[in-house]
Amino acid sequence: MKKYLKLFLTITASVALLYSCKKGCTDPNAANYDPSANRDNGSCYYINLPTNLVVTLTNVSNSGLVEIEATALNENYFTICFFDGNDSTIITSATGEASYNYSDSGSHNIRVRAHLDHQNYTEWNGVAEISINSSGISNVGYTTPLSYPNYSLVWQDEFNGTSLSSDWIYEIGTGSWGWGNNELQYYRQDNTSVENGYLIITAKQQNFGGSNYTSSRLKTQGLNFFKYGRIDIRAKLPYGKGIWPALWMLGESFSSVGWPSCGEIDIMELIGGNGYNDRTVHGTVHWNENGHAMYGGSNSLPSGKFHDEFHVFSIIWDQNTIRWLRDDIQYHTINITGNNLSAFHENFFFIFNVAVGGNWPGSPDNTTVFPQMMVVDYVRVFQ
User: Fold this and answer.
1) Which of 75, 183, 252, 264 is catalytic?
2) Which end of the chain is more exposed for a tag (fewer CB within 10 A), N or C?
3) Tens digits of per-residue pLDDT, 162-192?
4) Where do the domains of the chain lie?
5) 51-130 CATH pick, 2.60.40.10, 2.60.120.10, 2.130.10.120, 2.70.50.60
6) Is CATH 1.10.287.130 correct for 153-382?
7) Threshold 0.70, pTM exceeds
């Protein structure tokens, strides 16, 4: 019996000695730290995680747009996770820049990681407080400044009131031959509203005055008219087959000489329709040269449609040329120095409208969704 007891004690002592002498990395700061090791064997190695992670979170006022800019030292890339209810969107960025558009107001968590590699990173967590304006219109999109070198702001409408200002006049009815284009709508004052800093023109499928559709058409004729300068109009456009929004100008001489002798400058027109049409805008001039003459160009988004967010439609107009820009990208120009283009050296007034149907877009079909809105944030004239 003593023999077996001695053997047992010997084995127990050997096991205890084995565990008491376990070698490994004993530095808690090492990547391969072994908490069960009690003797360091020199195997520790270390990973230099990214440091100095700084995150700038920008929430665009009255919209759901959140923009992230992150910087760090010793990072190879960033991942930015936007939590949205039960969903999340992870964006991998080499620059640390990312953006996300929330559709609901409230508190939304955001996580930013500066990565050395997939498993090794430094983490930042924050919260975006989202407040979308009561009109339900997201302000996401391109914008332009209130000043430019060598220009002065001479007129603007930011639509900050609760009704249309006295700078504008409503045009009512169906016009002659559907406003000269066989348009289908009846223009009414009731289809215009001003709220939360936006002018909203709404096209509806509505029986009124013998027409199946209603909308609005506004002008500044006799009140505000301009020759030359830079004009910026920030707007979000309607879409769909048969929908025809326009931001344009007519010569102030229209009442005396008629169209097209007065001249027409189409700053923006869109002919709605699925795909290409909903993501393409047109800039055109019309004039009289032994009859109607016109010259135009177009610009298309690479994807999506002009309804998705705000864009700025501009012209830069001087004594030599008219240039068309979308979001400060020039896409069309015309030389107006010829004698036959004298109309474009006179005063022009604004017209904003959303037509339904007509010779160019055709009629709405069963794919067209109503109501449709053109939302204008501002119009500015610089000279």
Assistant:
1) 264
2) N
3) 999 999 999 999 988 878 888 999 999 999 9
4) 51-130, 153-382
5) 2.60.40.10
6) no
7) no
